Amino acid sequence: MSEPNRVLVVDDEPGVRDAVRQVLEYEGFEVVVAGSGGEAITRYPELQPDVVLLDVKMAGLDGLDTLVRLREIDPAAQVVMISGHGTIATAVQATQRGAFDFLEKPLDANRLLVTARNALDQRELVHENRSLKRRLDDRHHMVGESSPLVALVELVQKVGPTPARVLITGENGSGKELVARALHYASPRADGPFVEVNCAAIPAELIESELFGHMKGSFTGAFADRAGKFELADAGTLFLDEVGDMSLSAQAKVLRALQEGVVTRIGGSKAVPVDVRVIAATNKQLDVEIADGRFREDLFYRLNVVPIEVPPLRARTDDIPILAEHFRNQLVAQGAQERTFTDGALEALRQRDWPGNIRELRNAVERLLILAPDRAVTPADVDRLLPRVSEPEAEGGQRGAGLGIDAGSAATFESFKREAERTFLLAKLREHDWNVAETARALAMPRSNLYKKIDRYHLARESS
Fold first, then answer.
1. Of 96, 129, 162, which residue is a domain's last?
2. What distance in Å separates the CA atoms of residue 30 and residue 8, rounded to the nearest whole number?
3. Which residues, other chains included, contact 295 with Cβ-Cβ below 8 Å and sequence gap of 6+?
4. Which of 40, 53, 55, 396 has the lowest tally of Cβ within 10 angstroms?
5. Domain span at residue 395?
């Protein structure tokens, strides 16, 4: 049987304390009382009540000051204010200082019970949110002990608490989003929203609506007013991933939002103030993009207050066994087959090239957990289940359409088609120097589709 919820009643009138106690205890609450604000503050850490009912007017420390002190002790404290001389001004003050609700004397028993239960529901919601954030922290924290990673973590811890904008650079799959989340969680905005926008995955004609929102009827398909990502990230962090792929017109509006702290929805005339910390990321060389006229230099300097470069996995190979075990534990917790990695298997993973970086390694660990035949994954499993991708050979063997595919080794026609598509896309990306937008145009393919295929086939730019 679960323990009853505990309510702390704070009032300097014994009659009020006794009346409230009777109502609540009859409904199964555990009730403790305090005759002053000072007593409540002193006993709160020991009592750890679920809800506090707090009188506004008391001798000595009044209720509003007591409320502030209680919220300092426990920011999640659910405090309901009670007053025999309730005014709108007092209620507003109480709400501004963190009160959950405000009740007037004489107390109505039914409303008192409903308010207490609502406060309990709110406390439960706060605890669930905190638990979820802790799980997200566990999921998104950076794993490893290598010198490059330690230096990166130290930089994040130094920059995170500041309001500075950050530009994160690094190869695909190297963990730029993890760095952005770590910066958010290390900042005073950690309890605010973390809103991510993949600028490359959104068509150019929709990116401005996505970022700044729109008004109903402002364009075909705008069936209702819609807030953009800047508004949704208010009091939190906006992560602009692949910012180098943003259109020039959207760049101009982002620049204005950063300069003035306001956004205007498409089709709207009202400027909406936003309090947002912007973190951007790209795998492009923005100096080259600037020189070619594809990226605004003034926006670059606005975003690049603190640059952070994420090392590729090949620069931190000592972390590969640690990461493999980390991913194994994650995947098993999510329902994957329970298997262990032998020391030889971990070393085999460490010795491999990972052009797709951490993302590719995680996918490889998942494949091994699914397909390895025994409880322990061995080096032989690594070699058999993770074939190395080689460059197209000029001669020898039965090749597929000159694309470097061994047609004879394909088990089925579907697997041959998949490998042919993968090889073809890789060749085209290399041909266009891994410029996804140019490659998509050359292939007459929507850019979002190309990005999906890049993820599906774990394609990544090779190191030079």
1. 129
2. 9
3. 244, 251, 286, 289
4. 396
5. 390-464
**Domain contains 110:** yes
426: tokens are 């890789």
In a domain? residue 134? no
Q: Are 267 and 308 in contact (CB under 8 A)?
A: no
∠ CA(4), CA(6), CA(11), 5° rounding? 145
Helix runs in 98-237, H state only: 109-140, 147-159, 176-185, 204-212, 229-232
Contact criterion met (CB below 8 Å) for 34 and 40: yes
In a shared domain, residues 120 and 183: no
Please indicate, yes or no, whether residues 53 and 73 belong to a single structural domain of this protein: yes
First to last CA, the chain: 64
What confidence score (pLDDT) does residue 135 get? 53
Copy the structure tokens of residue 14. Answer: 């014994």
Same domain for 322 and 276: no
Residues 6+ apart with CB under 8 A from 84: 57, 104, 105, 106
Q: 216 and 110, same structural domain?
A: no
Nearest residue to 212 (alpha-carbon basis) of 147, 271, 291: 271
Per-residue DSSP letter, 313: G
CA–CA distance, 83 with 189 (Å, rounded to integer): 34
**Residue 243 Cα distances to 36, 54, 129, 246, 302, angstroms:** 56, 50, 30, 5, 13
Tell me if 361 sits within 8 A of 382, measured CB to CB. Answer: no
Tally the domains of the chain. Answer: 4
CATH code for position 218: 3.40.50.300
Q: Give pLDDT, residue 132.
A: 58
Q: Which residue bears the tokens 């010795």?
A: 351
Residue 452: the pLDDT is: 83
Low pLDDT (below 70) residues in the chain: 1-2, 86-87, 129-140, 389-415, 462-464
Q: Which residues of 105-133 are buried (b: 16+ CB within 10 A; e: fewer)?
A: bebeeeebeebbeebbeebeeeeeeeeee
Alpha-helical (H) ranges within 261-395 are: 286-291, 297-303, 320-333, 343-350, 357-371, 379-385
CB atoms near residue 58 (< 10 Å)? 21
Which tokens in the block code for residue 401? 């359409």
User: Phi and psi (nearest 5°) for 232?
Assistant: -65, -25
Question: What per-residue confidence (pLDDT) applies to 411?
Answer: 56
Whether the ω angle into residue 106 lies within 30 degrees of 0, i.e. cis, is yes
Question: Do residues 213 and 226 touch, judged by C-beta distance below 8 A?
Answer: yes
| CA 312 centroid distance within chain | 21
Residue 398, pLDDT score: 40
Claim to verify: residue 420 and residue 333 sit in the same structural domain: no
The pLDDT of residue 86 is 64
